[in-house]
Amino acid sequence: MSANRIKVLCVDDSALIRDLLTEIINSQPDMEVVAVAPDPITARDLIKRHNPDVLTLDVEMPRMDGLDFLERLMRLRPMPVLMVSSLTQAGSEVTLRALELGAVDFVAKPSLGIRNGMLDYATEIAEKLRAAARSRPRQARRPDGPGPRPLKAPMVSSEKLIIIGASTGGTEAIRQVLEPLPANSPAILITQHMPGGFTRSFAERLDRLCQISVKEAADGERILPGHAYIAPGDAHLTLARSGANYVAHLDDGPPVNRHRPSVDVLFHSAASQAGRNAIGVLLTGMGKDGAAGLLEMRQAGSATLAQDEASCVVYGMPREAVALGAAADVLPLEEIAPRLLTLAAASGRTQRV
């Protein structure tokens, strides 16, 4: 075993899934499965024995629920965890809870759980394991803990827009940006890399937590202040004009930067349609999607922000944006929400009301 290879422990009660993950991972030159476990109790001992770099974890398993195990693990021995999730409504809700508890990311199981279906995911699984191995494990948010201190927004132009892009680690980062925002915040458009079927649950969860209204974007709907619109997991979200109003547009065009929805597609539309009225924000994520689009927004007069390295789960997309000179400000995650309101107020005074 090479000391430089990523050591992976796979925890799943399905022997088929364990075998498929082992085949996929061991076919990569820089990683290997050091052990597999059919349940969390067995996994607990294997973690002590093998000290893996990353854990893949199923949710529904015998002897201990995967979420219970994850919560204990992140409290007692924080480590990168990649969830292996079913593409169902219940599966998406459980997966979002796992991300709240500290899982780095998730990969969806093939809908039929068949061998060829899982092998189609080989590249995605490998990339997400590499990102997880480089990530920063974080403590889970306590469900009974105090929420963020609500912020207050001064009067801003109704034309102001906040445009957010994120990938790995983004579900929690987006929550931390949106949750303290007041109900009179500018309208927000969001692209988060996530499969179809998960974004609706994500929007509904945020809507319960936030003072603003949060929903999955619908094609042709008017963009309103105090609302956040999340790109569906199988369509690009773009900003368009209809007379004096902004509207959302969805399309199923080809992936950009291998993603649909793509952050660059959303940022490009914001640069061309909103210009100085837009504020662009690039949060945690692997890859480079959004970096070129954020630069285009800055060149069009938009205020632009990127999350700093220390607060990112994966400092990939923001790093690329900073390298291009696309981000006018680079901030810790907890400073982004108040900065957005300051920018909206300052620029709002110079815009038509």
Automatic annotation (TrEMBL):
Taxonomic superkingdom: Bacteria
Post-translational modification: Phosphorylated by CheA. Phosphorylation of the N-terminal regulatory domain activates the methylesterase activity.
SMART domains: REC
Cellular localization per UniProt: Cytoplasm
Active site (catalytic residues): S167, H193, D289
Residues modified to 4-aspartylphosphate: D58
Record's GO cellular component terms: cytoplasm
Function, in words: Involved in chemotaxis. Part of a chemotaxis signal transduction system that modulates chemotaxis in response to various stimuli. Catalyzes the demethylation of specific methylglutamate residues introduced into the chemoreceptors (methyl-accepting chemotaxis proteins or MCP) by CheR. Also mediates the irreversible deamidation of specific glutamine residues to glutamic acid.
Family: Belongs to the CheB family.
Stated name of the protein: Protein-glutamate methylesterase/protein-glutamine glutaminase
Annotated gene: cheB
